[in-house]
Design brief:
The complex is a heterodimer.
Chain A (H helix, E strand, L loop, with lengths): L20 E3 L4 H11 L9 H7 L9 H16 L4 E8 L10 E12 L4 E10 L9 E7 L17
Antiparallel strand pairs in A: 1-3, 2-5, 3-4, 4-5
Chain B lengths: L5 H4 L9 E2 L6 H10 L40 H4 L28 E10 L9 E15 L2 E14 L4 E11 L1
Antiparallel strand pairs in B: 1-3, 2-5, 3-4, 4-5
The chains are: A alpha+beta, B mainly beta.
């Protein structure tokens, strides 16, 4: 559910952390539900013999496409309805297997002025129960100034 | 034997036609998607204060990337390859409008990551279309042997040609 409420550029301090979003433990049923919702039937997410014997994987993989949804939820809920998630990038560096719980984290790394709104740079990632990072990434979010105009919608990025 | 052969290099720069998603943004599809990702944000459901500035209920941010599904009556790889022990369950649907990379169709596929920019949400009822390009294909030697990193750039637009989002996806083939 969206948390949020208005959040202003001035409220964000460099080094501040976003509330961790926890998802899991993710069972094979969660993966099946996600596969069905997007109609993508890649067997490595539900056919354990295929994953292990054919693709030489250690078990059923939690979809990268699933993990990226959690990153977007963390960022969307944090900027709230008046802000905008402009840019996100992440790499799937390590596998996560069925049964693991994902902890999606973010931290403010920089802030700067944009054209009529403020920009917040975020470092982010996803760790599992063992604390292992699987999905390091970054994001840039737009937030209104306190007392300023709303962030434009559709979003108009700053001229580079 | 390099994985990146001349036949494969010919795909670099290849651009797809504009492809229109077979169904518009459907409320039921959005509900199933929101429940699957466990983000039942009211902005995805019905008109409310928090989606007023988006023009009403919207789909989750990454929903447009998952709208390019098998159209009614299109060939069904699940049936066609039911007896193929190497069929991984997805066949040709992975490349966002682009033709499959035939020289490496036997290689396993892993999602390497993405760079994404968002400009607007897809609203309920909207049509979504895409156009993609094989931006690059490079071979890298890794601790697990040689792998190919395939970069696909895609633009997503609504029915009025307004830009929704752009993605730059990396697919790993090994």
């Amino acid at each position: 559910m969206a948390m949020g409420g208005p959040r202003y550029f001035e409220d964000c301090e460099i080094g501040a952390t976003l509330p961790v979003l926890e998802k899991g433990p993710l069972t094979s049923a969660h993966l099946m539900r996600w596969s069905a919702a997007m109609e993508n039937w890649h067997k490595i997410h539900y056919d354990k013999p295929f994953a292990i014997e054919h693709d030489k994987l250690p078990g059923l993989l939690i979809n990268g496409s699933f993990k990226q949804q959690f990153i977007l939820q963390l960022l969307k809920d944090w900027v709230g309805p008046a802000g905008w998630v402009w840019k996100v990038s992440f790499q799937f560096r390590a596998m996560n297997l069925v049964g693991e719980t994902m902890s999606v984290w973010g931290k403010v790394s920089a802030k700067r002025d944009g054209p009529g709104y403020g920009l917040i740079d975020i470092d982010l990632g996803i760790t599992n129960d063992a604390g292992k990072e699987s999905t390091p990434g970054t994001a840039t979010l737009a937030l209104p100034y306190r007392g300023g105009k709303p962030v434009p919608y559709p979003f108009v990025p700053p001229q580079s | 034997m390099p994985l990146l052969t001349d036949a494969l290099k010919e795909y670099i720069g290849l651009r797809s036609e504009t492809e229109i998603a077979c169904d518009p943004v459907e409320r039921g599809a959005v509900r199933r998607y929101a429940q699957a990702i466990m983000d039942e944000d009211p902005i995805f459901d019905a008109p409310c204060a928090n989606n007023a500035r988006f023009g009403g209920p919207v789909a989750p941010p990454l929903f447009p990337t998952h709208m390019f599904r098998r159209a009614f009556g299109a060939p069904d790889p699940m049936q066609l390859r039911a007896r193929d022990p190497d069929f991984d369950g997805i066949g040709a649907t992975a490349a966002q409008g682009l033709p499959e990379l035939e020289p490496i169709r036997h290689l396993a596929l892993l999602n390497g990551g993405s760079e994404i920019e968002f400009f607007r949400y897809a609203r309920h009822g909207e049509t979504v279309k895409l156009r993609s390009r094989y931006a690059d294909i490079v071979e890298k030697e890794t601790s697990k042997g040689p792998m190919l990193f395939v970069t696909i750039e895609t633009e997503y637009r609504n029915g009025d040609d307004e830009l929704l989002m752009t993605t730059r996806r990396t697919l790993i083939r090994r």
